[in-house]
């Protein structure tokens, strides 16, 4: 065989074998005596006989650059799973990105399943419930001195035994002062939901 086969020429110029056969039938290819294709001469003849307006051009695919945050997220996901991650700026391979994507999908499914089973709760709902609980507890402490002051005053009067009477109003005021001071110190504590 002196030249190229239809399949070989099709691979060389990026056409299908059927397109090469049509070009051959239309006389736009140069053939050797044995029927094989003279590649260089055929390229030249095709360029001369092909209408430029009818040539399909490959769509210009301008690939957008991948943000560094996305690349680092892929690296972090791979590291979490004990898989070697590329160094920052070292370029992530398609296989690494695909692996990270599959890992993230599996993590998302696991979280969704845990939520369905009731093992996970919504963060906003948990924070709302914690706030309500803390507010209810604070309210209970604020009203506590009024409820127990008279009882504590009578117990202290009895415990002193020397006729000194502890007034309920004074006891309530002292208790309220100390309870409010304690509540103010507890207000600085902020729960951290990690």
TrEMBL record:
Region Disordered: start-end pairs: 31-67
Ranges of compositional bias, category Basic and acidic residues: 41-54
UniProt superkingdom: Bacteria
Name the UniProt record assigns to this protein: Elements of external origin
Species per Swiss-Prot/TrEMBL record: Roseisalinus antarcticus
